[in-house]
Amino acid sequence: MKFNKILFASAFATALTLISCADDYKDINKDPANVTVTDPKGLMAQAVMKFQPNDYLLWFYNVNYLTRWDQMATPTGSYSESFTEMRESGGQGSQYLETLRCRNEIRKFIDKTGDETQRGYEAACTVLTVYLGLFDSDMYGSLPYTEACQYDNGITTPKYNTVEELYKVFLEELDQAVKYFTDANSESTPREDQIYNGDWKKWAKLANSLKLKIAVRLYNNDQAKALEIAKAVVVDNVGYLDELSDDMLFCKAVKAGSDSNNDYVYGTGNGLATPGLSQNVLNYFLACKDPRVRFIYTKNSLNSKVIQGFIDNKTFDKLPQCIKDVVVLDEKGNFKEWGGMGEPWVRYQGLPVVYDGHLKDEYKQFFKYGNDYQLPAGDGVKDYYPFSYQTPEMKKGREDFTLPTVGKEKVIQDTEDNPLYTMYLTSAEVNLYLAEFKLLGADLPKSAEEYYNKGVQLSVQEYDALAKNNKIPYYGETYGYDPNEKPIDLQKDELDVMMATPAIKLTGSKEEQLEKVYLQQLVHFSLLPDDQFVTSRRSGYPKIGSDLLPFVKFDEVVLEAIPRRFEIASPSPTDLMFDNKMEAYKQQGFNTLGTNNSGSAFNNKGTALNTERLWQDKNAPQWGTPKGE
User: Fold this and answer.
1) What is the pLDDT of residue 576?
2) 286-301: pLDDT as tens digits
3) Strand 401-402 to strand 413-414: parallel, antiparallel, or no bridges (unpaired)?
């Protein structure tokens, strides 16, 4: 796990070209300032800067679709017929091209100069490109890859590679990358590498581990190959991500650069969507006594002093029963203490997974509460939110926090701009994949329980580290306002308590154990909504009727109406790639390009985004219905 504080100026100064010294050109009649040469390490730094799978577009648009379709979060306006429709999306589909350009430029440099010492930089760009290629193909399928970004070779209309072809190419490229990383002649410099500080051994582990992301996507179509990949990853002498210091979890920079939005420094400066905490997900967190709920979601704004404010204002009875249930009143009807699991747990409240809840009186307090959650504040009012939503500071660095207070009391704020630390591929994810593969029959040296236990514990530690470094509200801080306030930091012995809960312990039948593994993957991917969606899509979890974390089948909507990919816009006939695109769509069976906006979710119309599936999704189970159940 790397929390670098490297100034990233070199990425911009040397990304595509490097100005050479005047002495290098003393014998030619050119101004040295106008002569440029390719710099492989600068190109790698540029690729890292451009590596942005979790950009603002994903958090503003895509997260709303992904988390409601897999039911890992609840729309703050409730589920309704429109939840099966696609509208605007962004931040996915062509991300891989940003790093592929850099990789191809380095290859050209090596081919021209014969300088094989630069292969490590090429390999690093390859790893980033494969990661983004998976990310983009997860929702759109076939991509131009093997012929892409080769304009100087005269290729202006690159062919599309199928997902099946992409996975094969990705695996071959990762194998080659590992060889380059382990070549003793490969040059490496820490200054341009804020991921691993030029440590090619860790890059090799990353490349090897990335194969597991391909293997889990491949499993439903080629089980034998997927299990073979899992075994090969484990036995490879380069190793795999297996401890916190291995994690691809880092801050890009701590000082602003040339990008006007500074996305690579502070995360997006734009607004973010805020999916609500699902009651079903919350119940699972609490059953597991899982501290990650405190890092992934916000405390609500009903601290004990605010609760007393509602009591004084004689509006306490308007609060939802789930909140009143955790408040203990004294004999005079004033706030005495928190009940239930106490602070900070009681400040995490979820929204019910119901259909058209915003139209039903019994759910008004959750979705249409109006001024029920307001208190007088001088000549105006203050608004409070009773439920939890995804923590913005885990996705965005420049986010101010205002502590909820009562009336005209002093405003308490945290306005510090903090650089954004982000999780990409970690040892927790790798170990949870290995637990899955062991249960599915892979020949691996450790038991499923060993991989699973390590993966779960590492995930909690990774989220705790992220929360600390992103300085999210209440981490190590109570702000001195509410005497009943508690910080959210990971506490001593919490991991042991969590691992001993029946909801976590890997016991029961093979199917019951697989459910626990998949649910832990889903929780771990809370800050990686694309991976969370893919995990649900390929596994069928959460499961309808589950005692742990159920998927709700609405009577009003058929499962076939819930999308499994994004729609694809019709290309313009004047697009140079028109023929290639249309052929790729036809090959994948996209007859309508996937719009779900026509037809009704109340019947089997409008189901293109579910029935016209991507190759990797062809043999996967329907939502909420795992295979063998």
Assistant:
1) 94
2) 999 999 999 999 999 9
3) antiparallel
**Which conformational region is residue 494 in: left (phi greater than 0), alpha (psi within -120 to 50 degrees), or beta?**
alpha
What's the distance, CA 136 to chain centroid?
A: 13
**Which residues lie below 8 Å from residue 12, measured CB to CB, with a gap of 6+?**
46, 49, 257, 258
Please tell me whether residue 302 adopts helix, strand or coil conformation.
coil
The pLDDT of residue 87 is: 81
Mean pLDDT of 182-197: 90
Residue type (1 letter), 29: N
**For residue 328, with 0-12 CB atoms within 10 Å meaning exposed, 13-18 middle and 19 or more buried, which class applies?**
exposed
Calpha distance 384→390 (Å, rounded): 16
Provide the 10 A C-beta neighbour count for residue 246: 24
Q: What secondary structure, in 3-state letters, does 18-78 show?
A: EECCHHHHCCCCCCHHHCEECCHHHHHHHHHHHCCCCCHHHHHHHHHHHHHHCCCCECCCC
Angle at 430 between CA 60 and CA 201, to 5 degrees: 105
Rounded CA-CA distance 65/138 in Å is: 14
Q: Which amino acid is at 275?
A: P
Query: Could you give the CA distance from residue 227 to residue 627 in angstroms, rounded to a whole number?
Result: 18
- Alpha-carbon distances of 265 from 90, 159, 463, rounded to whole Å: 21, 35, 20
Take residue 523 and report the two structure tokens written for it.
């929780």
* Residue 418: both structure tokens together: 């903090």
Contact indicator for 118, 183 with CB cutoff of 8 Å: no
Using the structure block, give the residue that is written with the tokens 């105006």.
380
Which contiguous run of DSSP H or E holds residue 450? helix 448-469
Look up the pTM and report it: 0.92
Residues 122-132, mean pLDDT to the nearest whole number: 98
